[in-house]
């Protein structure tokens, strides 16, 4: 049995989640407030279905937190920028230096007029 806790979602969204799960799979679902009990589905399948529900309903500020036998849908709250972060920034932005050219200039190319030099054979002494 797997549990999904959706405390951060609205009641309408929880009912939409149950409808989505029943349409996408054949497990048994029981709703108790904002908790959903699921039997007959693997944990990984439940997690992927809940993530798919969040993605299709454009709920990108929510994420799925996996615990022992429960999945919790939590809202991600971004921290506001502090003034200390702005003070620590360097006044001049970093501009990368372009890499040196790798192509050989035409005047540096040596053209062979005749056969390349032969290898000299060393004799063993």
Description:
This protein has 125 residues and is α+β, with helices and mostly antiparallel strands. It has a domain at 2-75: Gyrase A, domain 2. It has helices at residues 11-24, 43-56, 83-88, and strands at 2-5, 28-32, 35-39, 62-66, 70-75. It has a five-stranded mixed β-sheet with strand order 2-3-1-5-4, with helices on one face. α1 crosses α2. The longest helix has 14 residues, at 11-24. It is elongated. The mean pLDDT is 81.
Topology, element by element:
Layout: E1 2-5, H1 11-24, E2 28-32, E3 35-39, H2 43-56, E4 62-66, E5 70-75, H3 83-88
Parallel strand pairs: 1-5
Antiparallel strand pairs: 1-3, 2-3, 4-5
Helix pairs in contact: 1-2
List the helices and strands in order.
Answer: EHEEHEEH
What is the 3D form?
elongated
Q: So, CATH architecture of the domain at 2-75?
A: 2-Layer Sandwich
Q: Under the CATH scheme, which class of the domain at 2-75?
A: Alpha Beta
Q: What is the end-to-end distance?
A: 84 Å
Strand content: 15-25%
Mean pLDDT: 81
Low-confidence stretches: none
What value does the Rg take, in angstroms?
32 Å
Main sheet makeup:
5 strands, mixed
Strand order of the largest sheet: 2-3-1-5-4
- The helical percent reads 25-40%
Structural class: alpha+beta
Number of strands: 5
CATH fold type of the domain at 2-75 = Gyrase A, domain 2
